[in-house]
Design goal:
Four copies of one chain form a homotetramer. With 370 residues, the first copy, chain A, is of the alpha/beta class. Chain A is built from nine helices and 15 strands. A five-stranded mixed beta sheet of chain A has the order 3-2-4-1-9, with helices on one face. Chain A is globular and about 55 Å long.
């Protein structure tokens, strides 16, 4: 007996629309007790005042609760719901449901897609962007790897983390109570939290030595990064929720995952490298038939801090009308979509210490070619 | 004796920054009397209240005026300044200066890049989106072709038009004075003007029969479109300013232009078709060396009106925070930039009757391979 | 035995925060079976892609459902949840819960605050902004008045309506199915729906003759308006939900309501007229003590269509960055807040046929002075 | 012989519209050689990427240059052009031209409106928000007072300063060149510059002791503020441009200025105090006739840093769609407009150390009642 994970992607008409999963449960396609994680892209701005993530979380928790008999709170403590707001440009709102099934399949010896989850304790505003978040995240990543039966760090291809964001009121209350918030700017604190989470991943996977996985490296040591981390933050969660996705010979099934770093916003070679590892070599653009084998695409990106891409200025960091994250998601999301021929991809901005500085990373889950 | 056109592209630190052209004039690289047109991408939102286009126009008119002794007004009546606001995502602000030089080069028999310009009479709010704009534009296109010595419509690869936009106050004043504005919504009137201008181009070039180049086709007959038209509108101009770019055997020089329609936002085949015609076959991404041969890239795009791209929903038309044009420019601009390896490209949203419905077009000027 | 209505206002930390009502139920302050309507102001943009209204609706429906044993769906069919997105400027997110209690109080002969609700049947995109919406709304207003035991139209001081909005996909689907949507622009259709709803109110209350409460009057006959209607639209509802608030001698209790039209955005006389009717004459700004007697303030406003306020231009209708409704809510909301000394007020933009053209209305519920 | 200053206010159809002043010069109403300062409110977002301020500056410099024969550069070195972007809500774009005339009027003994200007040396990004900016500003204020013949600090009612803002590219270049920019966030650096400028004013006028006018007080010692300073920043200037406005017995004419602090966003008492000093006591709203005596209204405001106004939460500091400055300008601008019955008022956000924390100030120039 071994394990098999499946990934079901559903379109999202609005952040309260759980029709896709409801139907999949009704028809038996998805067993609600087997759901271990949900990752998705919702309609909001992806910034502090984005409540579409919380709306979808609540809607799914109520749906699954109704199906399994667990309370909504128990559902939220068992299943990480990692939603990133912002479907700029061609991006299409959707959510991907990960399930784990015990099977009687004989072990093939070949590695297959594996998934594991873990949670840190709750974090206060004063913990975010601090050493405590780095350490707790690193521990949670180890636990998630263990629960996924992934032995080697090199078999980890994607670590998605959703950590807490806080509104101004919460930050000020924490400071009043003796906390030490790293910033009283809610948006900036989100970025510090993503950075600390990424350093935690890099430490857990041995991508950097423990001596560099320190609070003081945040926003300074840009060579300290994780190539597989994708970190978001949102007001709808209170702990770091960790999802580790990789390959393991103790799992079976037709799915596989690959990843590659993206050196900058225009690095389509990174995208093609990831596709190549999944059996799609030298792709101009996946055909519709090829694209139908994709189960999920995750992209992390950021507006380069020096204001330049390949020698020419961009204006994203000077813009008072549209946040830099919305700009870069629209751009890199479209580039990735144009190569993989699919717009229902997860694109998250703010790649602090996630992939090379000014770039990011891509991870792709697909059915292996027959 | 024949003619040669050159295209000089300058970066734009801010919309009043004319340092690039100033220096090129100072060093003799550009003869200000030979400037025939300027096309560029400025920092604003590209909508009604975008004043960056007017700022750059004024700045360049004063600069050239100082260099040639003409008045700024005379400069603006002689030279079309076509600026599109909106450098979303990776796009880089810049402007491209077209010059025409008389040369003693013997005719090679080969076609070379040719350019011609023309202006319609001034248009009132009540003319915009109306038959009068269609007819006056068609006539101006014919005149511009003649001034470019382009005999055949099939040698026209790009027609850039900048027409007037009006603020609410101007629209209401025109209505009060007996005008018949096609809309009292300033943003909507911009779109109607782009559509009428495109139909004028299509009529002039024989892309559609005159019977379909009619006011009533706007927003209805989506099969009536021009494959080479790129139309913008802005409050800083009062007439339709027309720039025709094509190939002619009466011109010489190393530059050439190609174009291709884009069927939808993800149509990278269109981009690659245009590159292929310029001697860059099967491009994943131009190398830096190849990209250095590019002189200008023009893209027209739009958010598909049915809310769907390749079967998946986009959200651009429901968004109250970011205008649909800003979304689609960010996305298609990034896709084009990722193939041509250049972010200083001209990307204009609102492709009404400009290329296939839901898509648009791309035109590229490059030095021919040696 | 007669009836008494109470109004409980709760702050809203985020659109899923129902802590205030939860506690009020827990302490017995509010009996959940007595809740008849909820009106509030949430964090979103108040436009088509505002999902904060739906999030709060779902959160409250689940809370009340848990308290009464009714299903969440039954709650939503019994209680109108009318939320307007957009807390621009100084405005503070909140919601006001209306309860109705049967009391043994002897009738005092004096009128007291009375409330009644009703729903139209579900409306399709093709019904919005059409005669059908006008008629169904008028009928629902009559029913709500009856349920409130308000005999005379002159005793109606406030009619709040929340009608459906539709996304592009829904509009196009309706058109495909043979519907006749009045616009395929989701934002514009919201406005037409508000207008039709307002004409329905005006007809029901005899503010205009039936002959002027017609579809063709929308956006044309600006003298046809209701002085007490406040209409919103949102994707989270499917019928017109109608709340009528007025005075009736069959109700008792310390609360009263007054209203006044606002002639334009700066009409503080309108605000002072409404206060005056509640026993606050000649107010510069209510004192904190006076303001503590306020239970709810409702304001409707719009950016004047001619682009002018008291002879000077505004720019709200030319703005491509911030929607006109967000501008005007920020402005008129602040003006009202500065007079009533309270920022937790309900301000809704888009006052088509609701109050004088270019202006709007204000209604205030307060405890009568002892 | 003594001096007289006049203030001419012109509407602004777009940021390149100098028609009002052009006509005033043509008719002799304004002598262009007598212009000493221009303060105005333009159409942009008031943030880093607001180029409407520079557009109007360029347009006016060219106009005045054409009229006086000075070069545009000389004009810009002689006349401070202080423009604040952002006409949110009801605000109306406009600019106010200050002129100074020598007159033969006998001294009346009564004080009259007086104005003086001065410039600091150019400031680099590394000077902004630093002690150097504080000191240079304080010195410039003293010089401007002297040029205005204002002897006592208590006669200074308004000090408008426009200091430089820098784009990301400029900030990074300065850091590379050994500068020490106080922030690499362009928007944040604007705020630090406003703060340092305000401390410079407070020091010069003796509002705070020199020991508190220090770099380390910025963002910390909120009791250290100026009650008459109004500081803006913009990419279109390179030095701190200082305009001091007050009362002096060496000037004559019918104009006077008053100012008052505003304790918070709703502090209409502050507005009424300023009006009261000009002979308008107990104003609910100025009548049209009274308002016609206004020559200029200047307001400075900010979103309170604790997220609360009079005990209720605002959401301005959590908003990723609309900048906090645009919110607060819309709100406080509308409140002031509703009292003074005039929408062509100058409202500037970001009141760091300008007036009480969480509040701001108002200054009003008006013709004295006959």
């Amino acid at each position: 007996m071994n394990l098999q994970t499946d990934v079901h992607r559903f379109p999202l008409a609005d952040p309260g629309d759980v029709q896709g999963l409801r139907q999949a449960i009704a028809t038996g396609l998805v067993d609600p007790r087997e759901i271990v994680a949900v990752i998705g892209k919702t309609h909001g701005n992806g910034l502090v005042n984005d409540y579409t993530r919380g709306f979808l979380t609540q809607s799914l928790a109520f749906l699954i609760s109704g199906a399994t008999g667990e309370t909504p709170d128990a559902i939220r403590q068992r299943i990480p719901f990692v939603f990133s707001g912002g479907v700029e440009g061609v991006l299409s709102p959707h959510y991907s449901v990960f399930t784990v099934t015990e099977t009687q399949t004989a072990e093939s010896g070949e590695k297959a897609l594996a998934v594991g989850v873990a949670f840190t304790p709750e974090l206060a505003p004063g913990d975010v962007g601090r050493q405590r978040q780095i350490e707790l995240t690193a521990e949670a990543v180890i636990r998630a790897m263990q629960s996924a039966n992934i032995q080697s760090s090199s078999d980890v291809h994607f670590v998605q983390i959703k950590g807490p964001a806080f509104t101004l009121a919460e930050i000020l209350a924490d400071a009043d109570a003796g906390g030490r918030p790293a910033s009283d700017n809610p948006g900036k604190l989100m970025g510090l939290g993503r950075a600390a989470s990424a350093l935690g991943v890099a430490k857990a996977l041995g991508e950097i030595p423990a001596s560099r996985a320190v609070e003081s490296a945040i926003g300074r040591d840009f060579e300290a990064f994780s190539s597989v981390a994708s970190c978001s933050a949102g007001v709808e969660v209170r702990a770091n929720e960790v999802i580790v996705v990789g390959m393991s010979s103790q799992w079976s099934g037709p799915l596989a995952i690959e990843h590659a770093p993206m050196k900058d916003a225009l690095d389509t070679t990174g995208i093609r490298n990831a596709l190549s590892g999944l059996g799609f070599p030298d792709v101009l653009q996946l055909s519709s038939k090829q694209a139908s084998r994709l189960r999920a695409v995750f992209v992390k990106c950021e507006a380069s801090r020096d204001g330049v891409i390949r020698g020419k200025s961009h204006t994203m960091l000077n813009d008072g009308d549209i946040d830099q994250q919305r700009h870069i998601r629209a751009a890199v999301g479209a580039i990735a979509a144009s190569v993989v021929n699919d717009t229902a991809i997860f694109v998250s901005g703010g790649a602090e210490h996630q992939g090379p500085d000014g770039g990011g990373m891509i991870a792709i889950i697909a059915e292996r070619a027959a």
